[in-house]
Amino acid sequence: MDTRSAPYNKKGSVPLGPGFTGWALPHRAEVTLPAGCAEGMGSNSPYISVSLEVPSQDEESVSWQKAEKNRVDADTALRNNVTVMREVATRLAERYDCAD
Predict the structure, then answer these.
(1) How far apart are CA 3 and CA 72, in angstroms?
(2) Chain-centre distance of CA 84, in angstroms?
(3) Residue 17 CA neighbour count, 13 Å, CB half
């Protein structure tokens, strides 16, 4: 049974792009590694998901003054998060020889 969550299921999120199952927001992102990665990592789970949280980008979780000081514009943060998650998924898939 496939138990991974549907990609792009976060309101307002964008997909990570071709070849990647995941989504990104300016303050959060998630990618599901290809099938087979979990086994290579010693897990019995069918899939492994990697997530990223960027507190300084989340207006609701930090005070306004601190957030304003540390925040980059939302488009830049979103592009950065997509890039980071694509790189993480690619490197882990290569390391565990489980690329699709």
Answers:
(1) 35
(2) 8
(3) 11
- For residue 40, how far is the Cα from the chain centroid? 20
Q: Are 67 and 59 in contact (CB under 8 A)?
A: yes
**What pLDDT digit, counting tens, does each position of 78-100 carry?**
999 999 999 999 999 999 998 87
Taking phi over 0 as left and psi of -120 to 50 as alpha, with beta for the rest, 25 belongs to beta
Give the integer Cα–Cα distance in Å for 100 and 94. Answer: 10
Residue 82 carries which side chain, given as an amino acid letter? Answer: V
What is the value of pTM for the model shown?
0.78
- CB 97 within 8 Å of CB 38: no
Give the span between the Cα atoms of 60 and 54, in whole angstroms.
12
Bridge partners (DSSP) of residue 22 are 31
How far is residue 8's CA from residue 34's CA, in Å, rounded to a whole number? Answer: 16
Helix or strand run (H / E) with residue 52: strand 49-53
